[in-house]
Design a protein that fits this description.
Strand order of the largest sheet: 3-2-1-4-5-6-9
Number of strands: 9
Protein name: Ketoreductase domain-containing protein
Helix content: 25-40%
Distance between the termini: 36 Å
CATH superfamily: NAD(P)-binding Rossmann-like Domain
Order of helices and strands: HEHEHEHEHEHHEEEHE
Keywords: NADP, Oxidoreductase
Family: Belongs to the short-chain dehydrogenases/reductases (SDR) family.
Pfam families: adh_short_C2 (PF13561)
GO molecular function: oxidoreductase activity, acting on the CH-OH group of donors, NAD or NADP as acceptor; quinone binding
Structural class: alpha/beta
Shape: globular
Radius of gyration: 18 Å
Length: 289
């Protein structure tokens, strides 16, 4: 215990100038845009090598190029998080890119996801199943695949799992039975990882976002969509559903930027949260209190 406390204290004092995540390796899914992109850029700025994964590998490479042009280190890995071979593909690429004996994986941020909104009584099985597959099964499988590289006795490096949830998972939401169920389930997954992996020094936390300015909360009329099993799924919120003041329930009176959302994720990954595990951090501007 004394050694662990000394290590944390040393990290906070001796390496802060080099970044909160100096020398660490972080896998971030869905990192080509939105919150994931902001997390990738922020983690890299704080000294981490970032494995930028996304369904669109070309967009992921753009983020990697941006990180490298700023003097950081990153790797792009394309692929569908719901695919059976995705975890092994990402873990293998990460291990191969790290110069040993550096710890191959310090952090996993399970951020990838989308919404497939329908009223409950009109939600088809496929709309329910794919959301569960992407938001619950995919994080579970990636964490499980990383176990041999993170679940190591005596390793005192800063290590964490961060799963992304939502206010929908905390409180439910009209038109989001599938999304709310998935985002609630991932909290239970996180708490279980906390209890099973804590003895190995691995922390596990959830960050629950409220209204963040991304393509998932943009006007649906903008035409943003994602392709799922060959079918286009429209993203965003219909203008008519927003009401006269979409921020009325947010005490801060506005939406968060992706960079503000990323700040909450960085906190949970950093040594500043060295004794925070099993927690759900609400990044909501006060909504839902």
């Amino acid at each position: 215990m004394a050694d662990r406390l000394a290590q944390v204290a040393g990290h906070l004092t001796n390496t802060y100038s080099r970044g909160l995540l100096a020398g660490e390796v972080a896998i971030i899914t869905g990192a080509a845009q939105g919150i994931g992109r902001s997390c990738a850029l922020l983690f890299a700025k704080e000294g981490a090598k970032v494995v930028v994964t996304d369904l669109d590998e070309k967009k992921a490479q753009v983020v990697v190029d941006e990180i490298k042009s700023a003097g950081g280190d990153a790797l792009a890995v394309g692929g569908d998080v719901a695919a059976d071979d995705f975890p092994e593909k990402v873990i293998s690429a990460t291990i191969k890119s790290v110069v040993l004996p550096s710890p191959p994986i310090n952090h996993i941020v399970n951020n990838a996801g989308f919404t497939y909104d329908r009223m409950l009584h009109t939600t088809p099985d496929e709309a329910f199943d794919i959301i569960i597959r992407v938001h619950v099964r995919a994080p579970f499988r990636l964490i499980r695949a990383a176990a041999p590289h993170m679940r190591i006795k005596g390793n005192t490096e800063n290590r964490s799992i961060i799963n992304v949830s939502s206010t929908s998972g905390l409180h439910g939401n009209v038109g989001q039975a599938n999304y709310a169920a998935a985002k609630s389930a991932v909290i239970g997954l996180t708490k279980t990882v906390c209890k099973e992996w804590g003895t190995f020094g691995v922390r596990a936390n959830t960050v629950a976002f409220g209204f963040v300015q991304t393509r998932l909360t943009a006007p649906k009329e903008n035409g943003e969509a994602i392709e799922v099993n060959g079918k286009k799924v429209a993203l965003g919120i219909p203008t008519g559903n927003r009401g006269p003041n979409p921020f009325a329930a947010i005490p801060l009176g506005r939406a968060a930027t992706p960079d503000e959302a990323a700040g909450g994720v960085l906190f949970l990954a950093s040594p500043l949260a060295s004794f925070v595990s099993g927690h759900t951090l609400e990044v909501t501007g006060g909504a839902g209190i």
